[in-house]
Write a structure and sequence with these properties.
The structure holds two protein chains of two kinds.
Chain A: E1 5-7, E2 10-13, E3 19-24, E4 31-38, E5 42-50, E6 53-56, E7 65-71, E8 74-79, E9 88-95, E10 104-105, E11 109-113
Chain B: E1 4-7, E2 10-14, E3 19-25, E4 30-38, E5 44-51, E6 56-59, E7 62-67, E8 72-77, E9 86-94, E10 101-104, E11 108-113
Parallel strand pairs in B: 2-11
Antiparallel strand pairs in B: 1-3, 3-8, 4-5, 4-9, 6-7, 7-8, 9-10, 9-11
The chains are: A mainly beta, B mainly beta.
Chain lengths: 114, 114
């Protein structure tokens, strides 16, 4: 079975540019999560969706960050404009919408803003 | 606010040794606790999930215990192997309106040496 698929795997861009990260959850999963991982802050939840609807975006750091889930098989996380402090590894995860179900993670996008 | 701490931050052991990783959390009102493994440059792989009503879960050489009242969990790895080298993270699922939110610990970086 295909796991959670993220693209790109690596992204290097200059500050001020728009960055779009993409995620395809596991088929049949109806919860989707975006996380950010840094050495300083560890793994932080940015936003999550249930049945394509954003439920909690309290982890989104600033208005420069936005996330969408237009359908059950695709989500994007956009940063505009990007800043060097946004450099991190961004993970997408999905699960069934049940509290007793584990989350399954993609391999992440390593983002470097110069 | 829920805080999750893991001790030690790093651990190096010889092959074959049994070892224990610790996880503590400040708010005992959790729904469940999940242990993950993260290999360098990769996402998180779910190892074990313990519901709040359970005391332990086992999978192969791994055994996870949960003492919700004291806010603690341990991951026991028997007969460690070099392939067990990775970062291990625990995460608690907290009871919120959304119901499906994980708070991650800081991780323990394990190295098993030949």
């Amino acid at each position: 079975d295909a796991g959670v698929i993220q693209s790109p795997r690596h992204e290097v861009t200059e500050m001020g540019q728009e960055v779009t990260l993409r995620c395809k959850p596991i088929s049949g999963h109806n919860s989707l999560f975006w996380y950010r991982q840094t050495m300083m802050r560890g793994l932080e939840l940015l936003i999550y969706f249930n049945n394509n609807v954003p439920i909690d975006d309290s982890g989104m750091p600033e208005d420069r960050f936005s996330a969408k889930m237009p359908n059950a098989s695709f989500s994007t996380l956009k940063i505009q404009p990007s800043e060097p402090r946004d450099s991190a590894v961004y993970f997408c995860a999905s699960s069934l919408y049940r509290e007793d179900q584990p989350q399954h993670f993609g391999d992440g996008t390593r983002l470097s803003i110069l | 606010k829920q805080e999750v701490t893991q001790i030690p931050a790093a651990l190096s052991v010889p092959e074959g040794e049994n070892l224990v990783l610790n996880c503590s959390f400040t708010d005992s009102a959790i729904y469940n606790l999940q242990w993950f493994r993260q290999d360098p440059g990769k996402g998180l792989t779910s190892l074990l999930l313990i519901q709040s009503s359970q005391r332990e879960q086992t999978s192969g050489r791994l055994n996870a215990s949960l003492d919700k009242s004291s806010g603690r969990s341990t991951l026991y790895i028997a007969a460690s192997q070099p392939g067990d080298s990775a970062t291990y993270l625990c995460a608690v699922r907290i009871l919120t309106g959304g119901g499906n939110k994980l708070t991650f610990g800081t991780g323990t970086q394990l190295k098993v040496e030949l």
